[in-house]
Amino acid sequence: MASPAPMYAAGARPLRAWQQQALERYEETSPKDFLVTATPGAGKTTFALTLAARLLQRREVARVVVVAPTDHLRLQWADAADRAGIVLDPGLTNAVGPVRAGTQGYVTTYAQVAGKPMLHAARATAVKSLVILDEIHHAGDGLSWGDAVGEAFGMAARRLCLTGTPFRTKADERIPFVRYEEDTFEADDGERGVGLASRADYTYGYKEALADSVVRPVVFAAYTGTARWRNSAGEVVAASLTEAGTKSVEMAAWRTVLDPKGQWVPHVIAAMDERITHLREHGMPDAAGLVLASDQDDARAYARIVRRITGKAPELILSDDPKASKKIERFATGSARIAVCVRMVSEGVDIPRAAVLAWMTSYRTPLFFAQAVGRVVRARDPQESATVFLPAVRPLLALAATMEEQRNHVMPPPKRTEEDLETLDLDVPEKEAREGELQKWEALEADARFAHVLHGGTAHTGAGNRPALAPDEEDFVGIPGLLTPEQTAELLSKRDDELRIRIAASHRHDDGDFMLVEDHPDEHETNGWRDAADLRREINRLVSRVSAKTSTPHAVVHTQLRQSVPGPPSASASVDVLRMRRERLRTML
């Protein structure tokens, strides 16, 4: 005797306008394959499960199979399905044959599908099935994964592909079940060629989501700094992030500022902590932040810095930790201020209270950038905003400036040379240096300085944009409608020196697990590493701020400075004198 048909909660949760439009477009043709591209945080899961519930209710399918990127997302999908009245098994392994009785399907991962594609093919064809391929670009992570997904679900009754990020693969890695059309692309050398670009059946970008208040507005706070390192030839090199010149020098400076032993990381973490405090005090009491590290060693070191700066231990989330999923859930529902992670929360993980992100990784692909920023843009209230702190390097600033652009999956024309292949912007970490270079290359020191706020593709430095902020305005930093991007930039710039003092104090009151200020002899040597030109630029900037604050002409401020710190003009002053003048100017602000 057949069991009574289950009741599904389709429509129990009001749909957003884009979700309703996408459903209507799907039902116009009831296609075998349907690709939805929607910005992170827009609600792809809700759309997919609403469609699944409708198809189950009408008995057009009898099973739902969800393929997700990670084990944690299996649990997240199962919980969301349960709220939609669909029972999906998140624990079904490749060692178990049939789908368990009492469920309407299961959630698996791309890795599991690649392990036994024929097993999943049998499950998906035993009854009419809807296969939901979450973040379908993972089927392009390698030919073997793409082949496995095609083999497993090529005969399924319906397939729904979801993605929220721009992605790019090698020319021969076509993603299964995605429709491609020829398009013209311009190569790095300026020549044009014909490649392939994906075509979604429904697209909902960040720009549209922002207009609909589906996602939060994002403000990017860029921090520059001067880095010093010893290269593979044993030479000591110093360069600014924003004035690095060549790409190789820029990458070396970027790598150096991310070193936990320098001052850039503590400075930006302190700025991040202040932003969380202001959000919590003004309309978002559970605001939290994410620190994104390149690897597990850096993540552990950054976690120690967070504890030293904030006085509270962060949630440390590492991929090889068996408790990682529980930690993500605890952080998502708890009250902890900061979580430090590598890639565990870069894609799909739902933490609505996370509104601040510190980009402390060398990953720089459009795919990873969109995934990571997507973790802090999910809107709950129209007054909430997101802030991303990042190094002021060209690759990241370019991605931030074009965040509102809509992108497709791109398969460019084949590259002609090995050198061209190496520059292809794949979703992989930067290549490690050769073994010999790793033994010689050494990060020595780095400082941090606020550079500008990037919002809507426009940079705001906070210098000379408008009159100084009133004291009561400062309490509302970054809240839409209360402070403009220019005002936010001005406030971050003003507080930059205060953060530097706070960090120095945290070093002096260290509990022993961290290097003390006295353990950095370079900062106190008579001939310190910072070059005089860099110090002179900083002094001029501070003089401008003192002049604006006191309504005193620049020339008068310079004269007062030379009286307080005697010596020759800045153009010929020693590094020691310049450093003392800088500290004197800070006390005048």
From TrEMBL:
InterPro entries: AAA+_ATPase, Helicase/UvrB_N, Helicase_ATP-bd, Helicase_C-like, Helicase_Restrict-Modif_Enz, P-loop_NTPase
PROSITE patterns per the UniProt record, alphabetical: HELICASE_ATP_BIND_1
Taxonomic superkingdom: Bacteria
Keyword line: ATP-binding, Helicase, Hydrolase, Nucleotide-binding
SMART domains on file: AAA, DEXDc
Residue ranges constituting the Helicase ATP-binding domain according to the UniProt record: 25-184
GO molecular function, one term: hydrolase activity
Pfam families on file: Helicase_C, ResIII
Tagged with keyword Membrane: no
GO CC field: cytosol
Name of the protein described by the UniProt record: Superfamily II DNA or RNA helicase
